[in-house]
Amino acid sequence: MESVKGYFDYNVTDKCISNNFENIAKQLYDFGYHTIAINQTIDESLLEESISEGKKKKKIERQDIVPSPIDAKIIKGCDKLKILNRLTISFTTQDIINRIIKSPNYRKYHIIAAQPESQQAFQFTCTNFEADIFTFNPSTKPNYKMQRKLYYLLVERGVHFEIMYGPAIEDSTKRKNIIATAHMYHSFGKSRNIIISSGITNSFLIRNPYDVINLGLLFGLSDGQAKDAIQNNGRNVYMHGSTVLEFVCWKLY
């Protein structure tokens, strides 16, 4: 297994690709982030439209509903920067997941994140979905009820809970939702298995690791937990993602 080092940022949104990604990557690298992930999000409603179109054209079997990972070029001067691909799946029911995991493109992603949008999706994520990261939409409050038992079930399965600092800086409503969710993680799981990522859309939102650690205190983390959230836990996510990918490929074939 390849080694990953430095600070981690697993949520550089795909919007950054068209917004001078090279400069963003260099800035992250200069701050000490040596492992980053380009995040692409697929929404259940878009998948349903794709399936419907596939039926009309009678090409549903050959249609890949998961987009290809973005192929980022090697950044000059950032030789030690490792760029991964992350797929975030926003869903309300588990039905669509079965189609997604059979996608050839699905197996090309290094990191998989689950973004449940209902109680049913939340339960499925906790018990059956092989994800690496548990995330949420900062624009809205969670549409599910967190339980201590389910939180620790995810911890036992090696899943990490994501908190994003970029949207918290960008918008006051998102900031309230992020802080509320972060404190919910503290109440139900004592902030176990937390990662802090940027969720940035532009370079103005990037913060250095020491500022992120300070923000972690605002999110209810201890100093040690805040450091782990951008360092040790990031390494654990990568190791978990590599193991799960091998398992999924073996299961499908």
From TrEMBL:
Q: Can the keyword DNA-binding be found in this entry's annotation?
A: no
Q: tRNA processing: present as a keyword of the record?
A: yes
Question: What keywords are assigned to this protein?
Answer: tRNA processing
* UniProt-recorded Gene Ontology molecular function terms: RNA binding
For this chain, the family text in UniProt reads:
Belongs to the eukaryotic/archaeal RNase P protein component 3 family.
By what name is this protein known? Uncharacterized protein
Indicate where this protein resides in the cell. Nucleus
Q: Which Pfam families match?
A: RNase_P_p30
Q: Could you tell me which PANTHER family the record lists for this protein?
A: RIBONUCLEASE P PROTEIN SUBUNIT P30, RIBONUCLEASE P SUBUNIT P30
Name its GO BP terms in alphabetical order.
tRNA processing
| Any one annotated GO CC term | nucleolar ribonuclease P complex
InterPro entries in UniProt: Pol/histidinol_Pase-like, RNase_P_p30
